[in-house]
Amino acid sequence: MKSRYALLCLLACTIITIAVSSCVKIQNRVLLKGTWELVNYSLDYKQDTTGANAMDFILEDFTQSPNCCKYMIDFKDDGVVTGSYYVLDTLNYSVEGTWSLDEKSMLFIDLDQYVNGLYEIDRQNRKNYIMTTDSNTVDLGATSFVVPVKMDIKRRF
Known about the structure:
Elements: H1 2-32, E1 34-43, H2 55-58, E2 69-75, E3 80-87, E4 90-103, E5 106-110, E6 116-123, E7 128-139, E8 144-155
Antiparallel strand pairs: 1-2, 1-8, 2-3, 3-4, 4-5, 5-6, 6-7, 7-8
């Protein structure tokens, strides 16, 4: 009789654990959906102590002024993600890729030549997230390399 009770308790705990972890994944997925602005993109952030924003040299005509340039990322329902780069409210280029939330705090993004990896999500608050990975593939046409990346994103819509 005691073993039956212990087995039922173990089964109940297992079901509750699975339900809670699924809820966290669904909650993170709902929180991520929408439009975000890429505020800072750091290549090899573990070695670079300057905190330089790589968007300064990756994106053409990019300057960090409030009215100049924006790189917007839109996570959509169907696993599609778009990236749009604006200079003075004019669309400079747009790309489309895929995204999926694989685990509680891991997000796979394959967006463009600079964003392709499995990112750990660190939610700072409701509007600000930091995403990091040790193996982001940067593809520059004839050359590609894998480098740690840190992206700071801010919810816009």
